[in-house]
Amino acid sequence: MTVLLLALGLGVVSGLRVFTPVAAALLVRGGVWGIIAAVAAVVEYVIDALPNCPSRTRPMGLAARAVSGALVGWMIATMHGGSGAFGAIAGIIGAMIGAFGGHAARIAAIARIGAYPAAIVEDLVAIGLAALIVTR
Length: 136
Hints:
Layout lengths: L1 H15 L2 H11 L2 H18 L9 H21 L4 H30 L1 H20 L2
Helix pairs in contact: 1-2, 1-4, 1-5, 1-6, 2-3, 2-4, 2-6, 4-5, 5-6
């Protein structure tokens, strides 16, 4: 059960940012792929803050988040001796929760603190949550 919660949680992070949970999981495992994913995550933070960035709830954005959620769900589940398939399913579910919940939270945050601060807060939440989960 705990393994599926970790997979669900990393999936939620995938819903917020596609590359952040991938980078976190790969950095914990070590190797060059973690560094490459971390660079991709930083590029994603910059692109996400741009005003013309498409919504994460559009089909392409949702598909990327589902793939990311499945990958990190599988990774964290197998890292903890759980079922990769169930981890992937939990990751996809988490990604959808994160995508739609994050979208609603971002819109509310933009109304209160502005677009750039809202993007930065969301980045920090994604990084913090991913780091917390992969170090368990």
